[in-house]
Amino acid sequence: MIAATHIALASGLYLGGSALLGYPADPIGWAIAAGASLLPDIDLPTSRVGRVLFWISVRLEKQHGHRTMTHSIIAMIFLCGVFSPLFWFGRGDWFWAVIGGYWSHLWIDMLNMRGVDLFWPASVRVVMPGRPGYRMEVGSKAEMVLLSSFVVGALALYPVSQIGLRGGLHELLKNFDMAFDEYRESAGTRWYSVELAAIDFCRTGTRDWCRS
């Protein structure tokens, strides 16, 4: 797939994860997820990352070919080991941004005609779906449609990622209990504006309640 598709998917997953899991969607984490989504193509000299790190990409392509070692579970395990120290610095969210962005690249490449050698060095090629006619060619109209949907999804998820899924539901439903729980969890850490709507029961026929 083209670089824009990888970046758009990684962005949507990063923002969606922020809304669902509650980690902060900061620009650095977002950039890390987007950058990691391009990293597996280091085995292709004509890719964006391959042109920058050409002395590595040329050797990888010559020795192993495209979508083999860098598109495998072994590469994921290696990446986990390299970036695990991020937890020591309290940046576990950046660690998952790397892993999530990298994995999103492998997953979307499985939709391509060739698929990926996910279990490299075994020559087992993983593709989705099984029928070749349903797979996508790089840069095809089908990929452009997929890219557009990813961009729209990421744009829709951005405001939700800033307030969280619960906050988004509160904005949509205007539920008092949800608003009160959110206030108790974050009291003293942010400013709140309160909008009250009241009903005068004495003017709606419930005079027994008013007299009591």
Short description:
Helices cover 58% and strands 0% of the residues. The chain contains nine helices and no strands. The chain is globular.
Largest sheet: none
What is the total domain count?
A: 1
Share of helix among residues? 55-70%
Class by alpha and beta content: mainly alpha
| First-residue to last-residue Cα separation | 71 Å
Describe the secondary structure blueprint for this structure.
Blueprint: H1 3-21, H2 27-36, H3 48-52, H4 54-64, H5 73-83, H6 92-109, H7 141-173, H8 176-186, H9 207-211
Question: Can you put this structure into words, describing what you see?
Answer:
This protein is mostly helical and 212 residues long. It has one domain (3-163). Helices cover 58% and strands 0% of the residues. The protein is built from nine helices and no strands. The chain has helices spanning 3-21, 27-36, 48-52, 54-64, 73-83, 92-109, 141-173, 176-186, 207-211. Helix 1 packs across helix 2 and helix 5 (73-83) runs antiparallel to helix 6. The N and C termini lie far apart (71 Å).
